[in-house]
Specification:
The chain is of the alpha/beta class. It has 4 domains: 85 residues, Chorismate mutase (Chorismate Mutase Domain, subunit A); 90 residues, D-Maltodextrin-Binding Protein, domain 2, CATH 3.40.190; 75 residues, D-Maltodextrin-Binding Protein, domain 2, CATH 3.40.190; 85 residues, ACT domain (Alpha-Beta Plaits). It is 42% helix and 25% strand. The strands form 3 sheets. Strands 1, 2, 3, 4, 5 and 11 form a 6-stranded mixed β-sheet that branches. Strands 8-7-9-6-10 form a 5-stranded mixed β-sheet. A 4-stranded antiparallel β-sheet has the order 13-14-12-15, sandwiched between helices. Helix 2 packs antiparallel against helix 3. The structure holds prephenic acid. Prephenic acid binds next to helix 1, helix 2 and helix 3.
Length: 363
């Protein structure tokens, strides 16, 4: 019979039967995988060792992406196995992850993108609270924004990273698309636009051009702004898809961020020291004595040992003097031979040296 003959239903039927049969096989294999993860969990329990192993998860995904011959795309492989491992991990012990709440923040989206959905989210009111929750053990990990492609560093996160004993064990970069949202999708009667200060800054040109009459009010998060817009018709929120969905708002205008490629990088904080994966990054905080050429000398060991620098950020040292802390991300793991040599030399040059952690680098 010509395979092109028949109604849509008649032609879809056998293929759907095939998909159903394949799903049964996939489920049987996933069940075996979950049982293997449970066994791993029992062994780890015996050694009281951590459940979440970012470097192992990275290796699992990279290996599959390597042998994948399509038609599934690499991103699809990563997304599927992120959730598979998230569900398997939850059988060992569901991880509690702290981030800036309420429901619908980009921080929540970052946590779910990194850890998958089989987690317990601990919603915090501030970045300080996220750090405290992890320090006190109320959460195993926290997810905090560290820099935005339009607005630069999130200075509170940098200060907290400096002061806290937490180390960085991962990173995740999210595209940040903001919309102007109200309950009805209309702007009539709206007098105030609310959002996190960072989001207001990321949309300032658009707001000046298209809604100059609206009073701009900074609130604790975009999701909080969305929550306010849902209950007050004089308020519009600037927030993203997760918050729009969570608070059932309508778009007055779509993608109002000034930079269409707006992105935020989040870091995962915790107590875990990641092992090397071959694709890592190390984050450092350094300072130098206030002498001519001091910053130049600080960077010399990196050049000498062929270690590339992915980021260089300065932040006032908050001592009332014109001194700075430098936040430097270098390519590689602190235990990689050339990075280890460069860091040893850096330590002898820097007036202050802190290694925030080595972790798998997000491409
Ligand atoms: O290999 C492990 O250590 C596991 O616990 C298994 C597994 C997985 O599902 O593959 C789950 C959690 C870890 O974060 C890493 C991998």
């Amino acid at each position: 019979m010509n395979s092109k003959v028949g109604t849509e239903e008649q032609r879809l039927g056998p293929i759907r039967d095939q998909i159903d049969a394949l799903d049964v096989q996939i489920l049987a294999l996933l069940t075996q995988r979950a049982q293997a993860a449970q066994e791993v969990g029992h062994i780890k329990g015996g050694f009281s060792s951590p459940v979440f192993r970012p470097e192992r998860e990275r290796q699992v995904v990279a290996r599959l992406q390597d042998i994948n011959q399509g038609p599934l795309l690499s991103d699809g492989i990563a997304a599927i196995w992120r959730e598979v491992m998230s569900a398997c991990r939850a059988l060992e012990a569901r991880q509690t992850i702290a981030y800036l709440g309420p429901i619908g923040t980009f921080s929540e989206q970052a946590a779910q993108t990194y850890f998958g959905h089989s987690i317990l989210g601990l919603h915090c009111n501030s970045l300080d609270e996220v750090f405290k929750a992890v320090e006190k053990g109320a959460a195993q990990f926290g997810v905090v924004p560290v820099e935005n492609s339009s607005e630069g560093a999130i200075s509170r996160t940098l200060d907290l990273l400096l002061d806290s004993s937490m180390r960085i064990s991962g990173e995740v970069v999210l595209p940040i698309h903001h919309h102007l949202l109200t309950k009805t999708g209309k702007i009539d009667g709206v007098t105030t636009v609310c959002a996190h200060a960072q989001a207001l800054a990321q949309c300032q040109q658009w707001l000046s051009q298209h809604a100059p009459h609206l009073k701009r009010q900074a609130v604790s998060s975009n999701a909080e702004a969305a929550r306010m817009a849902a209950s007050d018709s004089s308020v519009a929120a600037i927030a993203g898809d997760p918050a729009q969905l969570a608070y059932e708002l309508q778009q007055v205008a779509t993608q109002v961020q000034d930079d269409p490629h707006n992105r935020t990088r989040f870091v995962v904080i915790g107590n875990y020291a990641c092992q090397a994966t071959g694709q890592d990054q190390t984050s450092l905080v350094l300072s130098v004595d206030n002498q001519p050429g001091a910053v130049y000398r600080l960077l010399e060991p990196l050049a000498k040992h062929g270690v590339s620098m992915n980021r260089f950020e300065s932040r006032p040292a908050r001592k009332g003097t014109w001194e700075y802390h430098f936040y430097i991300d270098v390519a590689g793991h602190a235990e990689d031979v050339k990075v280890a040599k460069a860091l040893e030399e850096l330590k002898t040059i820097a007036a202050f040296y802190k290694n925030l952690g080595s972790y798998p680098h997000s491409a």
